[in-house]
Structures are given as structure tokens and as C-alpha cells.
Write a structure and sequence with these properties.
Blueprint: E1 10-15, E2 20-24, E3 32-34, H1 44-61
Antiparallel strand pairs: 1-2, 2-3
Length: about 60
Amino acid sequence: MDTRTNRLGQVMDLDLPAGRVHLRPPQGGLPWHCPPEHARPASEAEALRARVARLNAVSRWGV
């Protein structure tokens, strides 16, 4: 979770020497960088919301 933007992201890479966490939206899309101090694990509710959104997208669009 990027606390600056309240966006949920899947960690793709940790670039700690450069001070960045590379995140990607769980349903796909463009990745973004987040400073490590603004990244935190998603709560159970946030993770569930992301899973439901992904399943809805798959059933709706076949993504």
C-alpha cells in the first residue's frame, strides 16, 4: 500500500539503495515507484478488496 496515494500495489522489486519500492496495481496496469517509508503491507480488508476487483474484471472482461 502506497500511503501517499492510498493505492494498493503488488511489490515487483525493492530498490533500497535507490530508495524505491516498485509497485504494480494488482489488476494490472502501469507500475509506479514509492519511497520505502511510504509503503506498508495491505490490511486484510484492502487485500480482499483487490482480489474481488480482479475477479470482477476477469468475469466482466476476460482479462
